[in-house]
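Need tokens for this chain, all 279 residues.
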Amino acid sequence: MAAITAADVNKLRTMTGAGMMDCKKALVEAEGDFEAARDLLRKQGQKIADKRSDNETSEGVVLAAVSQDGTNGKLVSLACETEPVSKVPDFKELAQRILDTAVKTDAATKEELLAASQEDGRALQEHITDLMGKIGEKLVVTAYENITAEKVASYIHSDNKKGVLVAMKNVGGADVSTVGRDVAMQIVAMKPVALDKDGVDAATIEREIEIGKEQARADGKPEAMLEKIAQGKLNKFYKESTLLNQEFVKDNSMTIAQLLDKTSKGLTVSDFKRVAIIG
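Here are the structure tokens for all 279 residues:
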């Protein structure tokens, strides 16, 4: 059997980024064949991915990028199992690679993004799996959003675990960078379920009406009044839970719709995406 030197181990470590002991073990098993050793390390990553597939991923990072002309935004979240892993350079570099790949390829879906070819010819998902083998934790792209609009604003919260893209229309010639960021911060904080009441799905509306009726019934209200009371509570839900009807957190004398219109007549939000890694 070929003798495995420290230089060989270091060479494989440079090639793969894997730990010294893992590299030495792979070279020994591959009898000094570097390509076979690389394959073994990749298989190790897949084994860890399979073994830890059901593990919770409650830590990680959310990243965003907006095109230079401000008309497109990308939002990605890479999750891991523990906070220390989310802080290591390799994890941060992988998250940036994922975002850079999204920008370069303009992938339409998460599946398309993960299948995107890298400079070494392998798919992005293979690089994610490789890092799993190196650090021994489950890593997963939990979300990917891609928005195009007249203007797109982004915001990443200070914990780097929550992010938002906001698509705006009827911009005209206005500078909407400040209001766009304010609206994105609002979405992070207030978690709207839709743009306005027309965007709330039927199941949610039905659930809110039933909850309103049950609350009124528990308060001893007559059956004949339950529907009216429930509709009133539904309107309150719209005000609190749909973006354009929410009070602006920085100035509750106006709604988000009024804030936008005040910034530039007719300015509004056409879509938004909120991504969060939940611990």
